[in-house]
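Sat 14:20. Reprocessing the chain from the morning session after the first attempt stalled halfway. Input below, unchanged.
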Amino acid sequence: MQRTQATNRRDLKRSGGSLKTAVDVIKAYRKSLSVVGARREIIDSLDGALAILESQAAKGAISAVFGSKVIASRDAPDDKDIATLPEPEIEAMINDEDVTRRTLERIAIERFAVPKGSMRSYPNIMLLKEKLRTLMQNDVAHQAISEISKRVS
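Finished this time. C-alpha cells:
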C-alpha cells in the first residue's frame, strides 16, 4: 500500500494539483483500502470527504474546501503579462516560497523563450528557479551590451 500512496501523491503533484485529480486520487486510495479490508469507519470517512469535495467542486466553491490561498496561487499573471514582467517582479516570484512550478514554467517559456519540452530537464523546482536566475542574469547582460553598443554607434 505504501507504493500506491507514493504513486498517488506523485500523480497529484504531476497534474498540477487540480481538484478533479485530487478526487480521483482519493477514490483510488479508497478503493485500495477497501481491497485490503480497511475498517469501515475509514472507508466511510473517505466517502464523506469525497462527497464534500465533489459538491463544493460542482458549486465552484474551491476556496471553501482549500481556503483562499489556492485561489491566490491561480491569480498568476497571464502569458502576455509574463512576457513583459520587469526583472524585480520575476526575482520576487522566483524567491516566493509559494509560487507554483507551473507559474515558473510559464515565465521560462513566455519571457525567456525556453522550449516547453525543456521543462522536463528541471526535475525539481529548485533547479527551475536556478535556471530562471541564470536566464535573468543573461537578459540583464544582453541589455547592458545593447545599451553600450547604442552609445558607441
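The chain has a mean pLDDT of 77.
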